[in-house]
Amino acid sequence: MAGVAALVGLLGILTNNLSTIHIDFGGAESQRLDAVPDVRRIGLHFLATYLDLLLALTVLLAAGVIPNFLRPGISWLYFGRPLDRQAVIVNKVIATAALYSALMVAAALPATLAGMIRYGVFDLRIAQIILIQMFAAAIWLAIVSALGVFFRSAVKVIPICLGLIAIQVVIANRHMLSRLFDSSAIDWILNAVAWVTPGTNDLSDAAHCLAEGGSPALGWPIGSSLLFALVLIYSALQSVKRRDL
């Protein structure tokens, strides 16, 4: 939460500084900086980056939800009764993903609305960026929840998530690495890993592409991320059937 407060404060400082800048056209101060397209672009990039940071904080905060839920004393309250174990886990995963994704967006809204009101910028891309990042958050929260079912420990879940993020960074730069090493084997390995890992990094890139005024291709990152999360959750549910809680 301290990080969120710091980022909100940073936006406030940026807002106050930008409001004092004027542009002179032909010797007359005819327009404020908010009329310049670059300000809108910078603001949209700031929003996308801000949501990236909030997503990381959200994942860290949610890492212990499922492990705590599956502690012997807690899980017995649910699973000691005639309830469907898998249904309970699915409901908990959905509730966790929905709640923490909503909290992430709620944390971003005050700063976003402040910028929109201050500069009179009402751009459809703001909603699109928020929706993309909210979907990415839901995917990550589903992944974290599934890992929590497997490992029952936030201490184990967080390093695995960091490892997934590191892999995605490498995959995002695979074309540069292929040229650097000039190896068909490395190129094949990187492409194979790209096919079996979630495309959440591509979702972040899509948000920044929207900030630049582009039209990102969302089919592959959405499809691969959703498939990865569903397969992981299904595997976690199967493990629940075979393990004592």
Give your account of this protein's structure.
The chain is mainly alpha-helical and 245 residues long. The protein has one domain (37-242). The chain is built from eleven helices and two strands. A hairpin with a 2-residue loop joins strand 1 and strand 2. The model is unreliable at 1-36 (pLDDT under 50).
Summarize this, please?
The protein has helices at 2-18, 37-62, 65-69, 72-79, 85-119, 124-151, 154-172, 174-181, 184-196, 200-211, 219-242, and strands at 22-25, 28-32. By secondary structure, it is mainly alpha-helical.
Order of strands, widest sheet = 1-2
Q: Rg to the nearest angstrom?
A: 21 Å
Helix content bin: over 70%
* Total strands: 2
Order of helices and strands, N to C? HEEHHHHHHHHHH
Shape: flat
Biggest sheet overview: 2 strands, antiparallel
Class per helix and strand makeup: mainly alpha
Q: How many structural domains?
A: 1
Mean pLDDT across all amino acids: 76
Low-confidence stretches: 1-36
Count of discrete alpha- or pi-helical segments spanning 4 or more residues: 11
Strand coverage percent = under 5%
Give the N-to-C terminal Cα separation: 32 Å
